[in-house]
Amino acid sequence: MAQEINEDISEVILSEDDIKGIVSRLGAEISRDYAGKNPLIVAVLRGAFVFTADLLRAITVPCEVDFMAVSSYGDGVKSSGVVRILKDLSTKIEGRDIIIAEDILDSGLTLSYLVDMLRGRGPRSVKVCAFSLKDIPNHTPAIKPDYLGTHVPDEFIVGYGLDYAEHYRNLPYVGILKPEVYSR
Ligand code: 5GP
Ligand code: MG
Ligand code: MG
Question: Mainly resides where (predicted)?
Fold first, then answer.
């Protein structure tokens, strides 16, 4: 059955089926690499909560989940480079294997900041699992994900947890937001 597309979306770039395929592959990779371990999946709120919920169910080894909230974008569409911790972990991570789950890697500034901060707490390992990576011409992100779902074009995208001014997180697909929506 064809999905009704939100009128503010110019193009769907990842369908529900595309997303399912991506997440089950990531879950299989992580399950293989973490056999016999008990990784702590750290979801970066709010964007990564939808992805993390699916990823957890695609992981077949014992694992735990915790949440961090950071702010890098506010309600806008450009990275500010400034990362604020709004909510910290509830779990002690010393000696733990950490997998940070992120929705999208753009400049990578948010994640590289988070990785450094968590490394300072003495975990055994810190890896990054990013659902998507924005392909920006002539630009290398500040950090390379250990697990990557998919590349996305250099457009402002929403859905599957990704918002614009807190909207569109509920779309079950990922689409390009019409520029007139954020320039008005
Ligand atoms: P970075 O620090 O890598 O530039 O930005 C990372 C964060 O910016 C992401 O976790 C996400 O919250 C937000 N972001 C970056 N690109 C996009 C995008 O195309 N759409 C949306 N909705 N958020 C984005
Ligand atoms: Mg994010
Ligand atoms: Mg956002």
Answer: cytoplasm
Using alpha carbons, list the distances in angstroms from residue 75 to 7, 92, 133, 163.
Answer: 20, 31, 20, 9
Can 106 be counted among the known catalytic residues? Answer: yes
Q: Which two tokens stand for residue 123?
A: 């975990």
- Residues lining ion ligand 2 (Cβ < 5 A) are 44, 47, 103
Is the predicted ipTM greater than 0.85, yes or no?
yes
Of 88, 106, 146, 154, the active-site residue reads 106
Q: CA-CA distance, 160 to 171, in Å (whole number)?
A: 6
Sheet with strand 157-158: strands edge to edge: 9-14, 174-177, 157-158
For atom 5 of ligand 1, the residue with the nearest CA is 106
Q: To the nearest whole number, what is the mean pLDDT of the chain?
A: 93
Q: DSSP letter string over 108-165? A: SHHHHHHHHHHHTT--SEEEEEEEEEE--TT---SS--SEEEEEE-SS-EEBTTB-BT
Give the pLDDT band of residue 136 (cuts 50, 70, 90). Answer: confident
Ligand 1 binding pocket includes 52 (Cβ within 6 Å): no
Structure tokens at 35: 């056999």
What the chain holds in terms of domains, given with CATH numbers, is: 16-155 (3.40.50.2020)
- Whether 32 and 59 have beta carbons less than 8 Å apart is answered as no
Strand-pair partners of 125: 97
Give 81-108 pLDDT, tens digit per residue.
Answer: 667 889 999 999 999 999 999 999 998 9
